[in-house]
Amino acid sequence: MTRATTLASFLLILGTPALAANGIIVTRGEDGSMFGNCVPSLVVENTSTETIDYLQVELILALTDGQERRVELESAYRGGILYPIAPGAKAVLKQHLDVTRAVGVPCSEVKVRKVGQILCQAAGGKACASSVSVQP
Q1: What is the pTM of this model?
Q2: Which domain holds residue 105?
């Protein structure tokens, strides 16, 4: 390993925790089931210094039969009462089944999960300055 490669590897290792410590980390939550339908969730950890007013992550679910479903998981109802996520806090992003279409299959038929669009708003409806990292 050359000196430049060693230095680059060292800087990459050092830089990774620093990026995560200043962002918004979203990971897979516990799957639920309602009337036989898979109801996924995501867990948000706000490691940034800003308060998140609203966060929405679109999950793209690939099913075992080759079909695809898109599910929006939100921290609150869009245009409704906000549930701010303060710096250092955790929250759960949920699918609001009363205003969105159910997945239509049990969780055992979900083969792959990918991330679609991400919408993050801080105070005053401004876009979040921190990066959002999602691991579905």
Answers
A1: 0.80
A2: 23-135
